[in-house]
Amino acid sequence: MLTLNNTTVDTVMVPAGRIVGVDGRDSASRVEDTARRRGRSRLAVTDSTGRITGVVHVRDALKATTAALDVTAAELATPPHLLRPGQSVMSAIRSMREHRAQVALVADGPATVGLVALEDLLEQVIGQFDDETDPIIATHLSTQHTRR
């Protein structure tokens, strides 16, 4: 446990330059396409300045397109949970569980330095595991893509 308390969020996070995201003005359909192409279930949502303003789950985009709703990524997004780069993995897990967050932005003051998923933090504790929803979402996305 001593090692985990010394492992920090910045050693687990995806650096800011590698975060997969969509523009807040993008359609739900565009969110689906990006999620499919990039193999992600959650995407960062940015404003016109490139600042991350939220996180959108592909599930919400799928619901919107299935219901033929004309909504943007920004409208589907939830506010990001924030963590500090030097925060311990265990502290980050507790914080994310308390706030029911699956992903969090890692911010150093006003600057976003990365993004981390709860799954990645948990893998630091218990080892590699598969997300059981990944194949379900991938199958649904590929089915939706072939119908268009």
Overview of the structural elements:
The protein has 148 residues and is of the alpha/beta class. The chain has a single domain (2-126), classed as CBS-domain. Helix content is 42%, strand content 22%. The protein contains seven helices and seven strands; from the N terminus they run αββαββααβαββαα. It has helices at 2-6, 28-38, 58-66, 73-76, 89-98, 118-126, 134-147; strands at 14-15, 21-23, 42-46, 52-57, 81-83, 103-108, 111-117. The chain has a four-stranded mixed β-sheet with strand order 1-7-6-5. β3 and β4 form a beta hairpin. α5 (89-98) packs across α6. The protein starts with a helix and ends with a helix. The relative contact order is 0.20. Residues 13-71 form the CBS domain. This is CBS domain-containing protein. Keywords: CBS domain.
Report the biggest beta sheet as strand number plus sense, adding barrel if it closes.
Answer: 4 strands, mixed
Radius of gyration: 16 Å
Q: Provide the domain count.
A: 1
How many β strands by DSSP? 7
Task: Report the portion of residues in β strands.
Answer: 15-25%
Briefly note the structural class of the backbone: alpha/beta
Tell me the name of the CATH class.
Alpha Beta
Which homologous superfamily in CATH is the superfamily?
CBS-domain
| Strand line-up in the sheet with most strands | 1-7-6-5
Roughly what is the average pLDDT, rounded to an integer?
A: 88
Principal-axes shape call: globular
* Residue runs with pLDDT of under 50 for 5 or more positions: none
Protein name: CBS domain-containing protein
Keywords: CBS domain
Organism: Catellatospora coxensis
InterPro entries: CBS_dom (IPR000644), CBS_dom_sf (IPR046342), UPF0053_domain (IPR051676)
